[in-house]
Amino acid sequence: MNTNYFYKAVMAVMILLLPVSAILSAGADRISPVMDVIRKYGGCDGVMSVRLGSFLLGIAKMIVPDEDGGELIKYFDRVAVLSADSAEDMMKERIRSDLKKALNGYKTLMEMRDGDDDMTVYLSMQNEEVISEMVLVSDSEMALIFIAGDMPVSELQRIIAEVAEEQ
Predict the structure, then answer these.
(1) What stretch of H or E contains 143?
(2) 0.85 cut: is pTM over it?
(3) How far is the C-alpha of 121 from the C-alpha of 108, rounded, in Å?
(4) Are 117 and 17 contacting, i.e. CB atoms less than 8 angstroms apart?
(5) Element at 151 (helix H, strand E)
(6) Pair 130, 62: CB distance under 8 Å
(7) Dihedral sign, CA of 132, 136, 137, 141?
(8) Relative to the CA of 95, which of 5, 43, 136, 144 has its CA 20 to 30 Å away?
(9) Model confidence over 12-61: pLDDT tens digits?
(10) d(CA 69, CA 121)
(11) For residue 78, what pLDDT is reported?
(12) DSSP count for the chain of H helices, then E strands
């Protein structure tokens, strides 16, 4: 997926979070079924996964400047990426099937298409004011980005407003 498309997609997600108080999901205390999918397939042939734990995120929180996303990173507890673009078709289908089941109970925030690229963004919220998980899924790339933490909707709205003013 090209980087420019990814940044546009993330900005679109942030803009749509302005009215997010209407989006609710099941309890945030549960173990994430999306992380279960990442763990299950992360070591398979043609599948690449990266999981960042609290230690590396702590370092990132200290060194990433606010203007480069540092103001959001401080709310992240876990970040994981799974890419199965190089996997065989049968493996991709198993991942898609398990991921679809794992995302049951998440709210679809938005779906985007740009030519052959696509992305769907899912949210799980602790309550109306705190996002507990955000999952960005590209079916065309068979890739996903998982972000967990306690991300206040109000903080994301503030950041979006600042970015909009700069544009």
Answers:
(1) strand 143-152
(2) no
(3) 6
(4) no
(5) strand 143-152
(6) no
(7) negative
(8) 5
(9) 554 444 333 333 333 333 479 999 999 999 989 999 999 887 777 777 77
(10) 18
(11) 87
(12) 6, 6
